[in-house]
Amino acid sequence: MSPDPILKPTAIVETSGGHWQLIRTPQSRRPVAAFFQPDGTGADPESGLWSAQGTVWQVEEQLGFPLPHAVHRALQRSEPVGQHLWPPPEQLRPVADLGPADVPDSTIPRRFDQVHVVGGDSQTYGRLMHGDQPMRSWQHGRYRLDLHAVSKVQQTGQHLEFDVAYRVWTDGLIAFAGDDLHLAGFDPFADEALRHLAGFPRTSRTDSDLTARQADFLAHHATALTSMLLPPTHPYPPGTRISAQNTRSALTAVGTVVDTARNAAGDLLYLWRPDVYDLPGHPYRARHHGHTLVSPHHQVEPTLEAPDTAIDGPDGSAVLTYGSRIRTIDHPGFHHATVLRARLGPEELFYDVLPDRQTAVVQIPATDVVPVAGTAWPTTVTILEARTAAQVPLKNDEIIVALRELTTTISTPFGPMARVAERRLPSLDAALDPHTPDVPAPEQVRFTRTSTRHPSVVSIDQNQLQLVDPTHGFMTVQSDAYAAALTRSNADLTQLLTSRQTVALDGSESHATLAALTAIHFPDVSPARDAPAPDPPVDGPTFDLDL
After folding, report:
1. Where are the beta strands (DSSP E) in 199-348?
2. Taking the CA of residue 334 as centre, how many other CA atoms within 13 Å lie in the half-sphere pointing to its CB?
3. Nearest Cα to 335, choosing from 110, 19, 106, 104?
4. Which residues share a beta bridge with 93?
5. Beta-carbon count within 10 A of 326 CB
6. Which of 3, 30, 348, 425 has the fewest CB atoms within 10 Å, i.e. the most exposed one?
7. What is the per-residue DSSP string for 384-427?
8. Torsion sign, CA atoms 177, 179, 184, 185
9. Contact, 456 vs 237, CB < 8 A?
10. CA–CA dist 212, 52 (Å, integer)
11. Are the C-beta atoms of 474 and 287 separated by less than 8 Å?
């Protein structure tokens, strides 16, 4: 008697608790099936196997994680597997029945887990997904929208129409995915495409087709998501994300509204802060209230662009330097880190990085990291001064790149030393380098700030708040200290603050501003006796500035 035939999957995706086997089926409506095989040590034969079936996109929706494009292609070209080779139906448990909190972490691949594809090499999940970057992405808090490749283009009259692949995420899991998002009258890179995607799940599925996670999304998240993406109207409140004409050059920059103003003719102006002001090395990183640009309202429009971190475009450095932020592609030991130095090896560039929440420096090839945020050091001297203060010594074979120049280190009897800057670089972005000698100084714009006493509250995380005040600018405060200060009276807060000579009050400060200043200068402030801490005020849209 011949042995029972063995199921030979088209692709295998490993996880911490086992692996997913993916096959192509003979069914036209449900052409892909996936079965989760737990590790032998933790396998319970009575519990059954997690399973998913449908189109490759529907399988992603059920699994909760994306399948690399290499897996998509392999399933499209593979031969169907007869159902007699599948696990018995009574052993299968649909993952589509799992709610948002029930998806086992052991079934989700990690960046360093292996993916095996028939006819191809085995690679890590992280490296395969690194090659599948979306063409447009938006993320805020627990939500994320991705627009991927265009699957179909057709012309109707004078307009092009597109069908686009997409993924809608919540809490790190895919809720909706497909390649049938139809865009008519605008291109896939436009903000309107993201707004269209946010509302698409409501109209694209019937109740009978929904997974448990999709039903939960439509019931509890769909309205909040579409509301976040609604475009504001003039005058945009503080905290609004905008794309504006840089008043010192022909470049357009992305940033945040700090306040509105009027010129002598009464025209609406916006005072705004470019994202790049927050990069390490930028002279305006301190967030003083004068660190803003001024643009007329017709040169300002709201945007869903991600924060500009100077890693793309003409200002993106080919070599990262001290203070840059990176994430690894598939390193098993850490995900995010800060660059300490760039070094030239015999055949490749590599970085010395300090992983988050670790104390040991790690060397990693430049090809194994993805830049997350660059820097804005104007000269190599400013980099060296900051490194000296932080006790980051020079090493041999370093390359140090600033906005206006670059240099390398040499070995001397006294240890590694930096050469005098060998090469001058053009520095043409006045937002990234406001004191650049390569861009003429701007004309002074006379204006009067719009009168307002209430700051915009900008959330960062559960431990911190960020407030935007027209006079005192951006303030980052600890949530517990801020909540305690809010319980004090205005007179009490003013008395505390006037005891500090470094604090200048003009009498127009709101209670929220006084509380924020107190939380900064008196972080151990205690709440008023028997007074509950009120909720922090919300006066405008929230956004994330955490890089």
Report:
1. 241-245, 252-262, 268-274, 293-296, 300-302, 325-328, 336-344
2. 18
3. 110
4. 50
5. 23
6. 3
7. HHHHHHTT----TTBEEE-SSEEEEEEEETTEEEEPSP-EE---
8. positive
9. yes
10. 13
11. yes
